[in-house]
Fold each of these.
Amino acid sequence: MKVFLYDTNLILSSRISSQIKSLGYELVEKDNAREACVALVNLEGPKGLEVLKELKEKGVKVVGYCGHKNLPLIQKAQELGADLVVPNSQVAANLKEILERFCST
């Protein structure tokens, strides 16, 4: 199973990408995001909402994440069609469950 990760926060992205690989998933580049069972998007990145919108237009399932107090960003992501929006702490702590939810066949 393949996963796309968009995150410009090097510490958080390194932690998440390591977990993705250790759980047996393959990371794909943005050009191949359609092949992914889910895309994980840090909404607080410089183009987080743009990436979310672009992926949803391509039919990709998207889990957005950001700081838990960033309510306007959470609301905007939901309006753009994010399949799930979670706090940064949850994406890291519950990654296995998130991937199982979106990548189970």
Amino acid sequence: MSKYTSRLHNKAGLTLVETTIVLAIVSVIISAVWMVSSVVYENAHQYQANRQLQAIVQNVRQLYARLNALTNLADVTITLDAQAAFPIEMRVNQSNAAGLINHPWASTATGSVKIFNRTSTTFGVVFSNLPKKACIGLATKLTGGEITNLSQVIINGTITPSSALPISVVSANLSCTSPNANSFEWQFNIRG
């Protein structure tokens, strides 16, 4: 009976080593899924920012043609928001047209996107409070001619003229210095 009891005891469950191996395999699978989902999430934000920026630029150019002029060196975000120049999902409060606009990485109540009329022929779209990874992604993906007549890019005060675009990953990494508070401005010619 003792042989029979010992066989039942050995088949009764998993050993500590087997349990550890199973937990290690499950941990590796979960971390792989986590990494893939974070990449997919970041790519979705990059795509959304690209689409939003293109819509803003197109709408500003159309509004400029209708309004004929915007005040120089002024924040025209509220004026443009009143004219529905921003995609609805960018508004902090969907029912309020107060010019409080956010990019895909922000959820601030004060807004993180501003539009400035820089000169009589150029305007700037500013995304503030960007995480470093998002700043680098925008610098490398949205400076290569996706939107016409980009005159220059300003990242945290560093100006890159159109002749030096697109921005390389190394240059973007040097310019995007803050972990979570980078400022990115695209300056466009008003006439596309």
